[in-house]
Amino acid sequence: MKIAVLGDIHSNLEALNAVLEETKRLGCEKYVCIGDIVGYNANPRECLEIVRSLDLLAVVMGNHDSYTSNTRELIGFNLQAAQAVEWTRQQLTEEELTWLGNLPMKRDIFLTSPPARFSVVHSTMDNPNMWGYIFDRFTAAASMQYQWTPLCFFGHTHTPLAFDKTDTVIGGLYESLRLLPNHKYLINVGSVGQPRDRDPRAAFVTYDVEMGLVTLHRVEYDIATSQQKIIDSGLPARLAERLAIGR
Ligand SMILES: [Fe+2]
User: Fold this and answer.
1) What residue numbers bound the domain in which 221 lies?
2) Which of 20, 26, 28, 128 is the most exposed place for a label (fewest CB within 10 A)?
3) CB contact at 8 A, 122 and 60
4) Beta strands 184-188; 151-154: pairing state
């Protein structure tokens, strides 16, 4: 069974559609969503509707999902991100805001056939509602102390990195990882809707359960249309510009 793991979609409909076309081509049967379905881009309702229609094993809350669905003061957001949260709040129905607001912070998934155990979180396993960033092996190690399964998928940094723990934790860029017994893995799946690793293509991961194989995929999409929608919606122009450079 192949599972597609999608993170940080951020209301980018063109990127999401391109990714889903690729997941179907690859034969993915199930989906996992790492959170931040909304924010930054111009199609929050459409992206929410699509995500909710997928055959989901798990979906967790991202910081943009959280702040969009409540009226708390926007802490930790730059001006453009905050403007996009305010705009997104106006676009969604009460029912959609309630659905977003009730997402869990983390999930542990246990499959029996084929057997698999993995965790899903947006930011970190140790303090998921503090929205910390994992960029190095020290923050990865802290998160892994609260990871009870051999494999955890996360997002939030929009940067695909993988960490591998045996006696110590090592980490770095990856393209595909064969999962070994007695290792613990913490894998950032990159961002569908706003990549920040200088590669503007949409990113997602597939997890082939029988093969024990995690693979990072990059997909070209119609960036110009996503940019135009941002401008037409009155969202900050900087949010359009960054899509083209993957920052
Ligand atoms: Fe995000």
Assistant:
1) 2-245
2) 26
3) yes
4) parallel
Decide the pairing of beta strands 2-6 and 202-208.
antiparallel
Q: In whole angstroms, what is the distance from residue 145 CA to residue 158 CA? A: 22
Q: How far is the CA of 157 from the centre of ligand 1 (A)?
A: 7
Only one residue has tokens 């998160």, namely 143
Distance 123 CA to ligand 1 centre (A): 9
Confidence of residue 72 (pLDDT cuts 50, 70, 90): confident
Query: What separation in Å is there between the alpha carbon of 213 and the centre of ligand 1?
Result: 25
Distance (Å) of CA 138 to CA 155, 169, 215, 219, 231: 17, 8, 24, 31, 39
In this structure, what is the dihedral angle of CA atoms 69, 71, 75, 81, given to the nearest 10 degrees?
A: 60
Output the CA 62–ligand 1 centroid distance in Å: 7
Q: How many domains does the chain contain in total?
A: 1
Q: What is the mean pLDDT of the chain?
A: 97
* Rounded CA separation 239/121 (Å): 25
How many A from CA of 63 to the centre of ligand 1? 7
**CA–CA separation, 95 vs 93, rounded Å?**
5
Distance 124 CA to ligand 1 centre (A): 13
143, exposed or middle or buried, with CB in 10 Å at 0-12, 13-18, 19+? buried
Residue 158 Cα to ligand 1 middle (Å): 6
The widest CA-to-CA distance across the chain, in whole angstroms, is: 52
CATH classification of the domain holding 80: 3.60.21.10
